[in-house]
Amino acid sequence: MAKEILLTKEGFAELERRLLFLQTEARSQASEKIKKAREFGDLSENAEYDAAKDEQAHVEREIKEISDTLSAAILIDESSVDIKTVSVGCTVKIQDLEYDEKLEFKIVGNTEADSSKNKISNESPIAQAILGKKKGAVCDVLSPSGIMQVKILSINV
Predict the structure, then answer these.
(1) Following DSSP, what letter does each residue of 21-57 receive, concatenated?
(2) Domain extent for 143
(3) Closest alpha carbon to 152 in 141, 140, 138, 142
(4) Rounded CA separation 87/130 (Å)
(5) What does the alpha-carbon distance between residue 117 and residue 120 come to, in Å, rounded to a whole number?
(6) How many whole angstroms separate alpha carbon 140 and alpha carbon 149?
(7) pLDDT digits 0-9 by tens, 95-148
(8) How far apart are CA 92 and CA 156, in angstroms?
(9) Among 39, 69, 80, 144, which residue carries the largest CB count within 10 Å?
């Protein structure tokens, strides 16, 4: 059975844009590099040719990965997300009770996770600990440094 791939509409659209770029521009650029490298002669000792073929293989591999992801994706309908409990697609604000730090992040599928954009995977320890919980709940999160307690301060879309 294929692994469930959760994507927001935004994440799905971003992958579609990347796929289109790869199928058009990146593929074309890789082919052009191969064509130019062939002009250098003997392919057995042609580093430019080898590099161009490697780039082409990388582009084709990424095209396949994105295509597979898109075909297996389950879209998160953020308009129907119930904000009474934490679920994928929610933006959650929590408080680390030990250090009194507040964190805010959006819970997304693993493919979209990006800590620089405050998007965490639904498979992360924090998400696993708070999924299905209500505002005000105190949850134990298993972290590499031990168990930490967090309180859910707010749940939004």
Answers:
(1) HIIIIIHHHHHHHHHHHHTTS-GGG-HHHHHHHHHHH
(2) 78-156
(3) 138
(4) 8
(5) 9
(6) 5
(7) 999 999 999 999 999 999 999 999 999 999 999 999 999 999 999 999 888 999
(8) 6
(9) 69
Per-residue pLDDT at 1: 47
- Give the pLDDT of residue 2: 59
Q: What domain count does the chain have? A: 2
Q: Rounded to an integer, what distance in angstroms lies between the CA atom of residue 56 and that of residue 125?
A: 37
Output the CA–CA distances (angstroms, integers) from residue 36 to 29, 42, 151, in the order listed. 11, 13, 59
Separation of alpha carbons 125 and 134, rounded Å: 17
Tell me, yes or no, whether 59 and 70 share the same domain: yes
Question: Hey, is 110 helix, strand or coil?
Answer: helix
Last residue of a domain, one of 48, 76, 104: 76
Say if strands 91-96 and 5-8 run parallel, antiparallel, or are unpaired: unpaired
pLDDT, tens digit, 9 for 90 and up, residues 4-38: 799 989 899 999 999 999 999 999 999 999 888 88
